Amino acid sequence: MGTQLKAVVVEYEGSKIPFQHQLWQIRSSSVCANTSQNIAQHSECTMKAGRMFNEICQNLSANPSKDFRYIKSRNMYCNAAVTFKPVVAKLGASKEKSDLSLAKSACNAATIEAMGSHDPRVINQRDKACETYKQLKSRP
């Protein structure tokens, strides 16, 4: 009883939360393992799993029983509620580069182009680009 590795799938907040447990311990690495190849899905699944473990712990603690399996289950879920660490990933579009970042890139590119050049036009472009960067950098 409880010694066999057992796979469980629980429906929670409209999602299926898969995990395994053995010896009344939830194997953290098994929680949402089926979504591990997609970081956004895995994050969502593991965050729901964390809430689910917490909610199950609270429900089992609020309705005590002396049954051995009930006590072991409560302890298993309460332990998971405390120890399980969900994957938290916040994905979004990258931000546009700031004027300062664009000016720095322009200065760097112009500096590289002017290296070894004796063309006054190229050197002048570098000086202008780097002056713009220095002005933006000195702003509060």
Describe the overall structure:
- This protein is α+β, with helices and mostly antiparallel strands and 140 residues long.
- The protein contains four helices and three strands; from the N terminus they run βββαααα.
- A three-stranded antiparallel sheet has the order 1-2-3.
- A hairpin with a 2-residue loop joins β2 (15-22) and β3 (25-27).
- It is rod-shaped.
- The mean pLDDT is 92.
In short:
This protein has helices at residues 39-62, 68-83, 99-114, 120-138, and strands spanning 6-12, 15-22, 25-27. It is α+β, with helices and mostly antiparallel strands and 140 residues long. The model has no long low-confidence stretch (mean pLDDT 92).
Number of helices: 4
Our measurement of the CA-to-CA distance between the termini, rounded to an integer number of angstroms, reads 67 Å
Largest sheet: 3 strands, antiparallel
Q: What is the approximate shape?
A: rod-shaped
Mean pLDDT: 92
Radius of gyration: 28 Å
Total strands: the figure is 3
Order of the strands making up the biggest sheet: 1-2-3
Structural class: alpha+beta
Low-confidence stretches: none
Query: What is the H-and-E element order?
Result: EEEHHHH
- Beta-strand content: 5-15%
Q: Percentage of helical residues?
A: 40-55%
SSE blueprint and pairings:
Layout: E1 6-12, E2 15-22, E3 25-27, H1 39-62, H2 68-83, H3 99-114, H4 120-138
Antiparallel strand pairs: 1-2, 2-3
List keywords for this structure.
140 residues; alpha+beta; three-stranded antiparallel β-sheet; 4 helices
